[in-house]
């Protein structure tokens, strides 16, 4: 063992000249969230699309607070979220995004923080109780949100159905209300919120266990430090009950 002396070199700070992406976020003082704002109660745009609220936004706020930085919300069309992350326009995506093998080839995922399944919102009670083979009819027109796993699921599982893709949840709900389509297909949290928020429409829902929808946080694959930090944040959030608090607030 060598003797210590006053001239001994101190250990180098290996990140001093090459800070990680997470350190850049902290130095900048901002965490930039990308979210679609089209999937109430997970994410809903407000202020003419300049901001958003919901379970996902509150989760991002908790992340930012833990980093001791401000949260900046960017409301972006769902299909454009991954390109925005790849281009560095946002730091994370939290937008009810299902972890799929295809998406996972483009981005890294932390989670899931919620698991869900498909459901139908309709005004026709007989449709709500119908089996999948009965729903798969050319006489049925079903609306879905564009770019989601639900859109892909409808094409594969019910190829005879006429699918209508829209970018707004409010537009989809209005189409069911006005009889332009027989149903809206979405995921459990959104269906539950639609039923609760529109009591006068007498909507009924049909829930399915045909799909497994793990919802995660998307991060650029090269940002390993941010991924590691987010994994540890999620573990702590679960253990201290944050997800239960957010669920009580947004899922009622």
Task: Summarize the model shown.
37% of the residues lie in helices and 25% in strands.
Could you walk me through the main structural features you see in this protein, from its secondary elements to its overall organization?
The chain has 252 residues and is an alpha/beta fold. It has two domains: 21-115 and 214-250, Periplasmic binding protein-like II (D-Maltodextrin-Binding Protein, domain 2), CATH 3.40.190.10; 118-207, Periplasmic binding protein-like II (D-Maltodextrin-Binding Protein, domain 2, 3-Layer(aba) Sandwich). Helix content is 37%, strand content 25%. It contains eleven helices and 13 strands. A five-stranded mixed beta sheet has the order 10-9-11-8-12, with helices on both faces. The longest helix has 16 residues, at 224-239. It is elongated and about 65 Å long. The chain starts with 20 loop residues before the first helix and ends with a helix. The model is unreliable at 8-15 (pLDDT under 50).
Keywords:
D-Maltodextrin-Binding Protein, domain 2, 252 residues, alpha/beta, single chain, 5-stranded mixed β-sheet, elongated, 2 domains
């Amino acid at each position: 063992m060598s003797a210590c002396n006053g001239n001994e070199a101190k250990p180098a700070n290996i990140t001093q000249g090459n800070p990680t992406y997470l350190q850049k976020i902290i130095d900048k003082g901002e965490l930039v969230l990308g979210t679609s704002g089209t999937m109430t109660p997970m994410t809903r745009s407000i202020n003419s699309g300049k901001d958003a609220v919901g379970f996902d936004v509150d989760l991002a706020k908790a992340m930012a607070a833990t980093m001791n930085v401000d949260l900046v919300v960017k409301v972006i069309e769902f299909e454009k979220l991954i390109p925005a992350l790849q281009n560095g326009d946002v730091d994370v995506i939290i937008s009810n995004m299902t972890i799929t093998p295809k998406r996972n080839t483009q981005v890294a995922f932390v989670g899931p923080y919620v698991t869900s399944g498909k459901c139908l919102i309709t005004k026709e009670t007989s449709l709500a109780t119908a089996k999948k083979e009965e729903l798969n009819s050319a006489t049925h027109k079903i609306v879905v949100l564009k770019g989601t796993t639900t859109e892909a699921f409808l094409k594969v599982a019910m190829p005879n159905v006429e699918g209508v893709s829209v970018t707004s949840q409010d537009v989809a709900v209005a189409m069911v209300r006005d009889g332009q389509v027989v149903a809206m297909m979405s995921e459990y949290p959104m269906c539950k919120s639609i039923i609760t928020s529109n009591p006068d429409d007498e909507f009924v829902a049909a829930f399915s266990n045909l799909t497994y929808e793990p919802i995660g946080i998307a991060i650029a694959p090269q940002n390993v430090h941010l991924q590691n930090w987010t994994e540890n944040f999620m573990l702590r959030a679960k253990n201290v009950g944050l997800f239960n608090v957010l669920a009580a607030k947004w899922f009622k």
